[in-house]
Amino acid sequence: MVLAAGEGTRLRPLTERVPKALCPVGNVPLLDRALARLAGLGLTGPDRVGVNACYLGEQVVAHVGARTHLSVEPGDPLGTAGGLGNLRDWIAGRGVLVGNADAYLADPDAPPGPDVAALLDGWDGRTVRLLGQPADDPAAPGTFDGHRFVGFSLLPWRLVRDLPATFGDLVRAVWRPAEAAGALEVVPYPGVFYDTGTPADYLAANLHAAGDGSLVDPTATVTGRAHRAVVGPGAQVRGEVTRVVVWPGATVGPDERLTDAIRAGDHVTVPAGRIGRPGTA
Length: 281
Fold this sequence. Notes:
8-stranded mixed beta sheet; 20% helix
């Protein structure tokens, strides 16, 4: 299951028009990156893959189409635990690999899918597994066995079947109780991770996806200069951009000089501030 119902409040005003799950990273919507990772594990189709939607959910529904099972949550998002509880009848006795749509993961030594396969290898169907990376402070709140969670977890049916379809989070409902019972394992992820929840980390993930240079969609027009930038489909850059994400269809005027920012539309500019380093959240 891919969690795609959140509001992405820290990315506003970008997420006032587009749900966070559909924000592009390297000119690919985050949700499509998550689905490609599952496909790399052989998990495809509405019988095996589910996506939940709520905030600006009609956009998620239209984007996903018939590729997955869709769970549209009424009212406000149900959270990570409530979203699973709302899908109990579809899950129907199976273990669940749960991924956050906003998690950007990249391992230079393995393609999407095989890069997280260790999470599934040898699983006994009873423990909870989390994908993690060593935390700067192993004792900090929010860590598990000295690791920070990096976007994917594996849950047994016995811990999913009683989750109510009401607001709740997996940390309190499943992960911490499993940890207290000695039934939680952390599987290290060796690659790069950004949670893309802040403008700084969202920009950093895009620049990582672009590599050492710029990533310019073939349908974009760049008559100015682009330095370490990601320029989306149909975008126009007539000025100068440095470490900038230019969204699909957005415009940078000839007199504009943008640095460390995200541009959407003609005038929406979100400063990114400090760019996070790989592995930070």
